[in-house]
């Protein structure tokens, strides 16, 4: 069964490229350009994983993670992909909510390995 990955990024070119890369490596992609729309779509679309950018508007990635918790959706796996350097004190409150951090620009191979490893690990549980 094809896994569904929701990509949340306010940069439309990045969003488009990530959607195309995901399809190229065999995943179904849902691309959403802001955190509020993504939060509204999660319950209906039921993604297997979220690829989340940190630097977005109107809410950033940290606020998105806070809203996931408020909605009772914190069990949904989240991978960050960002060009931002993340300080330890920034990520500390979210460590258990994030399965991996990918640095932009993300290569096709890096994305493929990260997703393959995650889904392989979860299927073995």
Topology (SSEs and partners):
Blueprint: E1 4-8, H1 12-24, E2 28-32, H2 35-45, E3 49-52, H3 61-70, E4 78-82, H4 88-91, E5 98-103, H5 108-123
Parallel strand pairs: 1-2, 1-3, 3-4, 4-5
Summarize the structure in words.
The structure is a single chain. By secondary structure, the protein is an alpha/beta fold. The chain has a single domain, classed as Response regulator (Rossmann fold, 3-Layer(aba) Sandwich). Strands 2-1-3-4-5 form a five-stranded parallel β-sheet, sandwiched between helices. The longest helix has 16 residues. The mean pLDDT is 94. InterPro entries: Bact_response_regulator (IPR050595), CheY-like_superfamily (IPR011006), Sig_transdc_resp-reg_receiver (IPR001789).
What spatial form do the alpha-carbon principal axes imply? globular
The string of secondary-structure elements, in order, is: EHEHEHEHEH
Mean pLDDT: 94
* Poorly predicted ranges: none
SSE-based structural type? alpha/beta
Count all strands and give the number: 5
The separation of the N and C termini measures: 17 Å
Domain tally: 1
- Report the β-strand fraction as a percent range: 15-25%
Short synopsis of the structure:
With 125 residues, the protein is of the alpha/beta class. It has 5 helices and 5 strands; from the N terminus they run βαβαβαβαβα.
């Amino acid at each position: 069964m094809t896994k569904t990955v929701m990509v949340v990024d306010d940069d439309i070119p990045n969003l488009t490229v990530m959607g195309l890369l995901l399809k190229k490596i065999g995943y179904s992609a849902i691309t959403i350009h802001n955190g509020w729309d993504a939060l509204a779509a999660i319950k209906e679309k039921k993604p297997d994983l979220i690829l989340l950018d940190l630097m977005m508007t109107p809410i950033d990635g940290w606020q998105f993670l806070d809203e996931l918790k408020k909605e009772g959706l914190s069990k949904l796996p989240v991978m960050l992909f960002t060009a931002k350097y993340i300080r330890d004190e920034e990520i500390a409150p979210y460590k258990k909510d994030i399965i991996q951090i990918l640095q932009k620009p993300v290569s096709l191979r890096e994305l493929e390995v990260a997703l393959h490893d995650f889904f392989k690990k979860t299927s073995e549980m």
